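Incident review: delayed structure delivery

Summary: a single-chain prediction request sat in the queue longer than the usual turnaround. Root cause was a stuck worker, restarted by the on-call engineer. No data loss occurred. The affected request and its eventual output are reproduced below so the record is complete for anyone auditing the incident later.

Affected input:
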Amino acid sequence: MIKSLKKKYGISAPRVAIRPQTPAYMRWVVITILAVLAVGLSLGMYEAGRRFAGFDKNETGHDLNRLSELNGRLERDNEELRMKVAGLDRQLQMDLVAREDIAKQVKTLENENIRLKEDLAFFQNLGSAGGKSEQKVSIGRLKLERGKLPGEYRYSLLLVQNGPRAKDFHGSLEFAVHFQQNGEKMMIPIGSDSSSQMLDINFRFYQRIDNTFHLPPDAIVDSMQVKVYEKGVAQTRLMQTVNLSL
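Output delivered after worker restart:
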């Protein structure tokens, strides 16, 4: 019994912790305050998350209106720019066409000017060689050039009658072209647009002749020969040869 008392109240007895007694209402006050703080913190974090993610209705609506206005303004600006670009493109096309037409007209006028100068020089030479009583037919400005199409060639010449010129000259022209094909030299006559190989002429002072003919694209033209015949005379009145202009 004594031993049991020593164990219970002696040195070896278990320790007893003494704690102050907290009123129950204080515990509930503390719990309520902590709950309110936790709810407030949660709401604050939720609202901050919404604003950070862009879910605020007022700000989102304002941003959407601003972006919609910006999009509408950009669409209007793009449409105006498209119209301006289309107008400039049409104007550019018209300018290019007009420029090409003007360039062609200038080239034509330049060629015409060169031809007129050559005609003038030719007639001036005929005038300086005057004084002869016989009637004479001559060929001036005989040219042979390549055409725009493959195998196409263009020739031109000026027939002039000087002297007394009491009557018109009636006759015909005969053309023959010399060329090479497949390593062989060949010659064929060239007629007018009709089936006849002779070109009729009738003039008093002068007559200009421009025409084209066609050969196979692989033919290599060397020269062209022109013969002038007077009507009723079998003998050749005049003959002249011209090489192809390069």
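Verification: The beta strands are 136-146, 152-162, 169-181, 184-190, 198-203, 206-214, 220-230, 236-243.
Action items: add queue-age alerting; document worker restart procedure.
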